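Re: that backbone. Tokens:
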């Protein structure tokens, strides 16, 4: 997949080896801001782990168009870059149900680039790719019920709010459970 112009100087495409330093640096610099994505942050806690993440992500992307051996595919992530090298965020399919053509979408953006519409544009681009190339029928986004910025993305893209997933996530620091909200959009609604 070649990088594609997303918006102005911003590109979207598969992260490559050349992006390892940039991805690692933004994750380290913004750990506190990105705490909600701690599973992703943990995958990039060292330069070696960041390199491994990018390599595994590429393998997952390369396998998506091969005949399905399993019902589930782990998905893949795309980098949002300012120019060719500086990663400012990511968007991707967190998982793809290959039999039912359902994809779960996840995203994050650097604090310095929040509120500029990058994630909304990137998510819309990803959904078009999913519909046209992967034949995805249903797209899902879920986020913490108190994460209004993240919930704004599916709302701006005219997703339907399906409901609340009660006590869906256990917070590691406080051990309390927090609700998530689930949004969906069908390819026929695009």
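Recovered sequence:
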């Amino acid at each position: 997949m070649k990088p594609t112009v997303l918006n102005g100087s911003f590109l979207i495409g598969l992260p490559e080896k050349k992006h390892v330093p940039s991805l690692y640096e933004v994750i380290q610099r913004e750990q506190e801001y990105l705490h909600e994505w701690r599973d992703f942050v943990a995958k990039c806690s060292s330069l070696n782990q960041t390199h491994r993440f990018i390599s595994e992500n590429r393998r997952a992307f390369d396998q998506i168009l091969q005949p399905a051996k399993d019902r589930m595919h782990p998905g893949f992530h795309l980098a949002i870059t300012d120019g060719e090298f500086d990663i400012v965020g990511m968007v991707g399919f967190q998982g793809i149900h290959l039999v039912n053509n359902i994809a779960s979408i996840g995203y994050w953006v650097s604090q310095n680039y929040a509120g500029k519409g990058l994630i909304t544009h990137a998510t819309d681009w990803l959904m078009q790719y999913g519909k046209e190339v992967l034949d995805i029928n249903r797209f899902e986004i879920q986020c913490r019920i108190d994460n209004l910025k993240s919930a704004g993305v599916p709302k701006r893209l005219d997703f339907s709010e399906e409901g609340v997933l009660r006590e869906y996530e256990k917070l590691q620091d406080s051990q309390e459970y927090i609700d998530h909200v689930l949004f969906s959009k069908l390819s026929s609604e695009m």
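The radius of gyration is 16 Å. Helices lie at 20-29, 38-43, 47-63, 118-132, 148-156.
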